[in-house]
Amino acid sequence: MTAQQSISISPIALDADGICASQTKASSGALTLDGALANAALDVARKISVNSSANIAARVFTIVGTDANDRSITDTVTGVNNSTVSTTKYFKTVTSVSVDASFSPNNVIVGTTASCATRIIQLNYKNEIAAQVTVELVSGTATWSIEETYNNDLSVSTNEVMIAPTAHASKSASLTAPIDLHAHGVRLVTSAISSPTIVMRVDQAIY
């Protein structure tokens, strides 16, 4: 007998100023969350981007919110010169964006990226039969990977190490494959999207 857990996502296109529309700041502190996607949960957890056409390489931005498993998270990024930098963590909600000092008279925008993540599905890591993951690309296109973790307590820790085995990394078509034995959790992440609907199913034996 097996138990199945399923997640379906249909991420919209990235929105480079969806969190903070173009603004400057003459001191340290909070930016205004006035983008089209601000003050509400995103369609799916995503890496958050900070962009400026100027040189803001000395500034440090702190993003606060929650992840796909509804855990509180914080990430920091250091500004760059006429480019975009993104968080390493995936945010389902953004409750604040702040900066360590003035970047006036330059402007920045803060928004979402095409790097998305599902919630982490918790597995029975004591099971001696490897779970199976099936990813179905129902429509659109996407480049995706399956990431696994061996962290013990996914309900508390937000610093789990996520590993994408080579067999599960940078895929663009449907796939069925085993998950590493004794993995504690699994999620799907994307690095490129174009109007996709992606379904991930995880089957694990119960006995």
Concise structural overview:
The chain is an all-beta fold and 207 residues long.
How many domains in all?
2
Strand content: over 45%
What is the H-and-E element order? EEEEEEEEEEEEE
Name of the CATH class of the largest domain: Mainly Beta
Compute the gyration radius: what is it?
A: 18 Å
Query: How would you characterize the largest beta sheet?
Result: 5 strands, antiparallel
CA-based shape:
elongated
Calculate the mean pLDDT score and round it.
93
Number of helices: 0
Distance between the termini: 7 Å
CATH architecture classification name of the largest domain = Sandwich
- The CATH topology of the largest domain turns out to be Jelly Rolls
Low-confidence stretches: none
- Please provide the count of β strands: 13
Structural class: mainly beta
Helical proportion, percent range: under 10%
What does this protein look like?
0% of the residues lie in helices and 52% in strands. It has strands at 2-9, 20-23, 29-30, 45-55, 60-66, 72-78, 81-86, 93-99, 108-117, 121-122, 132-149, 175-178, 185-205. The protein folds into two domains: 2-9 and 118-205, Jelly Rolls (Sandwich); 20-114. β5 (60-66) and β6 (72-78) form a beta hairpin. The chain starts with a strand and ends with a strand. The model has no long low-confidence stretch (mean pLDDT 93). Strands 1, 10, 11, 12 and 13 form a five-stranded antiparallel beta sheet that branches. Strands 2-9-4-7 form a four-stranded antiparallel beta sheet, with no helix packed on it. The protein is mainly beta and 207 residues long.
